[in-house]
Write a structure and sequence with these properties.
single chain, alpha+beta, 10-stranded antiparallel beta sheet, two-stranded antiparallel ribbon, 13 helices, 16 strands, globular
Length: about 450
Amino acid sequence: MRKLVLAMLLCAGCAARGRVMRLDGTTISPAEIDATVERVMRAARVPGVGLAVFSHGVPVYVRAYGVRDQTRGLPLTIDTVMPGASLTKAAFAILVMQLVGAGQIDLDRPIRDYLPRPVAEYPAYADLAGDPRVDRLTARMLLSHTSGFANWRWLEDDRKLAIHFEPGTRFAYSGEGIALLQRVVEAVAQAPLDRLMDARVFGPLGMTRTSMVWQPRFEADHADGHDESGGRLGPQRRTRPDAAGSMQTTLADYARLVAAVMQGRALRPTMRDEMLRPQIRIDSAHEFPTLSDETTAANRSIDLSYGLGWGLYRTPYGRAFFKEGHDDGWRHYAVGFDAGSGLLIMTNSSNGEGIYQALLETVLGNRFTPLDWEGFMPYDEIDRSPLARFPPPGPPGERTRADLRSAAPDAEGSAAAAARRMKPNPVRASVPPPSCEG
């Protein structure tokens, strides 16, 4: 605790002197950070960006830029509620590891032992009947994305859930696996996921504007999502808790969670270490499509792997843990390092991934992100021709989520290569002065 307090004082002193420390020990001024964010968000046509910079495990620079509502010109703030998308999975991993630490879940015990009846007897998992591999699935496999499931069953040709390889033998990102683990967690804890997350994760970490379901109190300050052409998608008012992606959160709140993971406050040391320990080496050429057989040795130099709920890699500056968040109209990214440096980016645009490289390299000094594997094409390298042929966006909802998913590159499961062919159309929105956490 004394070391943590000292680190916080040192970070506060650095920020007070007008400099923020980067990963390699160099510094950057707040003015340089602001100029970088405003430049790339305009160039990439991203209406709103939230940014949290960490040093020694402490968020030392937390700011919001641009708008949360283009129609009314309302500014994005650090307390504006946005869908967390797949950042939810990392928060869920903390809950699971708490249950593991309490002895309520064994990571290597078959999940069938925690459910009232066999997995395939549940209507949602009847497709797995007759496959003996379902009885070998464990929490470790589900949380490390080695279950053998597709990302989502609706991506399968027959839209049925199936196990594609021996569980535990290779990485293949899967929201289905997380959804199945949610069922196990609720059975073990005998409570719905939203209540469990409130009581065991969000509440203790002071995440007062975060929930697994939409809350009426969010109506006063929430963001609209935007598609690649700038069309308004509105907020996500989810009513069912979904461990794979229903979390509603804010820049300030999720920064608290990332800081807690860095500082070891969210879990016991042994549980944190296990969560961030490599569980499976990643040799796939790209994260998406998840079941592609294409492999590469390109990421061996950074030891790209997956832990429990978080991606992992190594750099000369220590180990890194990371998580992406991607949904229609929302793109987020979090990364933290052993030494306590880190960056959290949250955007309300499908174009948000285009600014990651510039922010990671300029603000954090991180040039080790597996950008190609994650499918993050810089905004100035994206082929602009396809969307240029789209008609101007119509009223909200005119473009369906299915239409958008057909072009999305990420955690919704379509090919990463699709991102390389996307072109953002102009978003005509002014960028108001950034809001800042004091």
